[in-house]
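Sample log: Methyltransferase domain-containing protein.
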Amino acid sequence: VVGGLGVAALHAVALPFLLPALRKHCLPYVAANAEQMELLTAAARRRNLRRVVDLGSGDGVVCVELSRRLGIVTVGHELNPWLVWYSRLRARAAGVHHLCTFHRGDMFDADLTGADGVALFVVPAMMADLEAKFARDLDVDAVVLAARFPLAT
């Protein structure tokens, strides 16, 4: 019985990290590094952003750090329930839980209403689909902060 529970627990923890490989766009979890956070913070400060949505928010570091450093409202969207849970804990520990919200769900279904900035750490294969979403869902003045790869246009 104990062995079976251990296997079940291992599956419950590991599956959310492995299932993205089976989706149309495989987006592995990779945390943002300090240099990337400095660049994102500087860009958000320069543009005077007030509400940033992080698509594929992972461990929540982008939302938490932007809220902590700039005092702005951030919203993270992440498929992995464990990372959403961890992000919420991280925001509470940093004292910015009143500024950060995290949702479990597909980034392509994320509500971008009112966002003046969107942060992305995604793979090149996703850019065309995301660009179509931005054209539909973002205000014309909104800024896309693509941290690793540029948009096609």
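Observation: The two ends are 56 Å apart (CA to CA).
Observation: The helical segments are 2-18, 34-46, 61-70, 81-94, 127-137.
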